[in-house]
Amino acid sequence: MPYNKELEAAKKAVSRAARLCQRVQEALLQSDVQSKSDKTPVTVADYGSQVLVSFVLQKELSSESFSMVAEEDSGDLRKEESSETLRRITELVNDTLATDGSESINALSQEDVLSFIDSGKSDGGSQGRHWVLDPIDGTKGFLRGGQYAIALGMLDEGKVVLGVLACPNLPITSVASNDYLTSLDKIGSLFFAQVGEGTYMQSLYGSQSSKVHVTGTENPEEASFFESFEAAHTMHDLTSLIAKKLGVKVPPVRIDSQAKYGALSRGDGAIYMRFPHKGYREKIWDHAAGCIVVTEAGGVVTDAAGHPLDFSKGKHLDVDTGIIVTNQKLMPALLKAVRESLQEKSSL
Ligand SMILES: Nc1ncnc2c1ncn2[C@@H]1O[C@H](COP(=O)(O)O)[C@@H](O)[C@H]1OP(=O)(O)O
Ligand SMILES: [Mg+2]
Ligand SMILES: [Mg+2]
Ligand SMILES: [Mg+2]
């Protein structure tokens, strides 16, 4: 398969980054939380995860040219007041690499750490290959001890051709209802897909993978839907109006991050809706990996007008109003419910 080598490197990279994130989540200290200039929480784990993914990909694929579009940059970390944070990230990255133990490497210096973060500075686009990384997607979920994902995709000529989602807190069995919050099942799911080859899932700690499919349901009354946990990230009133019009009976399952795409790809729920508040612009790293994981599992991802997502335009995704995800059978009815709800809302 054309992207096998890249897929193996991507799985290795996100699995390592997931271990680093778990260590930080377990020992989450107030001092690990910083604020970027846009006021979103960013932790040593976001930076550390980006360093590890970047490091592993470049090491495993050393013969290929490397371009990556990633969420974090080193600007704030280069400021004097961040020297303790930079020291902690460097220590965390080196400890994670050392406890992995699979190969001997020289410890990374603080300068190496900054430069691995900055190797995610590409703008992507419609030509050549570009990795697309969200080192921690769902930072708010991460800080709350909830769901988050390390999301890594690859673009080739503007199309997403592979995607890997590590979801360290997602049970490997279904999260079809809000009971997942108290699930005692084994947690840690890894989803991966490459174009034309389907989507697979395995435990984050095992190698046995199995093919997954979106649900085949045609009946909205049986369909459950996923949406953001955070009300600031999606209009919960709009999604509940759409769900009502469609005939969905069960309450929404609220999960942080692209773990929603993973859960949908294995049929835990049938619909994912995301309608950010006015003025928010979507980024490619928030959807690239999730999008291919769902489409290769038989699902459909479009904007509110039914257009496929276009990842070839740089860092941003320009979508009409919001993003909707479901299976092929339910999509026509979902699009109709979305259209009617948006009209109703705009006439209020
Ligand atoms: N105001 C906002 N509206 C919508 N999405 C946001 C907003 N602020 C941050 N995000 C991003 O939304 C995604 C999480 O959405 P959710 O968990 O609700 O599905 C994350 O990528 C998060 O960024 P980040 O990667 O920094 O956590
Ligand atoms: Mg962020
Ligand atoms: Mg994100
Ligand atoms: Mg992030």
UniProtKB/TrEMBL annotation:
Its cofactor is Mg(2+). InterPro entries: DPNP (IPR006239), Inositol_monoP_metal-BS (IPR020583), Inositol_monoP_superfamily (IPR051090), Inositol_monophosphatase-like (IPR000760), Inositol_monophosphatase_CS (IPR020550). One of its GO terms (biological process) is sulfate assimilation. Mg(2+) binds at residues 71, 134, 136-137, 286. It catalyses: adenosine 2',5'-bisphosphate + H2O = AMP + phosphate; 3'-phosphoadenylyl sulfate + H2O = adenosine 5'-phosphosulfate + phosphate; 1D-myo-inositol 1,4-bisphosphate + H2O = 1D-myo-inositol 4-phosphate + phosphate; adenosine 3',5'-bisphosphate + H2O = AMP + phosphate. It comes from the Eukaryota. This is 3'(2'),5'-bisphosphate nucleotidase. It comes from Lithospermum erythrorhizon.
